[in-house]
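Batch manifest line 375
LIGAND: G3I
JOB: complex structure
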Amino acid sequence: MKTKRFNLAIVIAIAVLFIFCTVTKNKVGNTSLQKAFQGKFLIGTALNASQIEEKEPYASKLIPQQFNAATPENIMKAEIIHPAWDTYNFDLADKLVAYGKKYGIKINAHNLIWHSQLPPFVRRITDADSLKMYFEDHITTVASRYDGKVYSWDVVNEALNEDGTLRNSIFLQKLGPDYIVEAFRLAAKAAPNTKLYYNDYNIEQPEKRAGAIEIIKKIKAAGVRIDGVGIQGHWHMNDVPLEKIEESIKEFAALGIEVMFTELDLSVLPNPTGRPGSADISQTAAYNEKINPYTKALPDSVQKKLAQSYSDLFTLFLKYKKNISRVTFWGVDDGQSWLNDFPVRGRTNYALLFDRNLKPKEAYYKLIELAKQKQ
Ligand code: G3I
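JOB STATUS: finished
ARTIFACT:
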């Protein structure tokens, strides 16, 4: 009799375990961001070296499951890929290309020309001829190597000031305002099989948006190829400029190019600089406890607000899915986010869809649900 009861208990235990696993698996396993938005727009993430080299098993499973596009957060920037005049480090970029091929993930290479994260030898250049030599050699060497291997390039990144005028970068100073058209001309020649984008933050704001539109029109007027524009999307969950974003989608789409949201994250922490949301890395501020309120965990009320802000934003994206080709989150999980150290070092932010244990947050499930409703 005892044996029968024991066997029955075992059978029941196995049945319960099976049901639990099935439910849990269905909760995450069968769905994913890329599946939910399939046929609407690509869903991407920024990848760091450890993720590209698949050093962490769980992340290595989660990333290809959730995303069908990826942007290297740092490893293809000039300071890393071109550290000295005649030295190029292609190892990690080659691994990224192989990673994309292995998982069928479209790689958006980032970036060819940017005033930040330049190698020291470029920062030391004082004459125009030397900078022109660097400019031409860098774009041609890097873009031609990855032509057809990466899906797209952020050719020029953040060339504008907030008022829509051109940022006074070393490129503007030494090469003049046509450096942007020339960058796209060189990239198009070196990479005929790769899409070419202009990428910037705050270009949903009218003045800066006007500057971006002027850049795009100038490139097109010169008969040079530009395929899309990236609105970075570094916003705050309490201040997502939905109306300006909608205006921007319409105005950029009217230029006949792809519209993308390329570095999306929604900070939940107080903005210590007092200035509107920005990704201007020159903006920093001093640490104090008041501006780092969630060191232990994120209160449920804030989690819900974040989820709602993401849902409102994606409702807008889905309204314009015919114009939007990609939405990329600037990182996989909260622990990876640059916002833990910007504009203040050492804070605990919660800006993305996966928590520090790589588990989906409420915002993730809200977006999956939204996508199902809008099928
Ligand atoms: O790799 C070095 C490491 O060896 C060293 O020990 C450490 C010391 O601080 O620095 C490490 O380099 C850091 C690098 O990220 C890699 O982690 C740099 O200090 C740090 O400044 C750099 O930050 C990156 C930032 O661009 C630089 O401006 C962020 O990860 C990256 O998310 C951020 O991304 C930019 C986009 O490219 C363009 N749009 C704005 C966006 C946010 O600034």
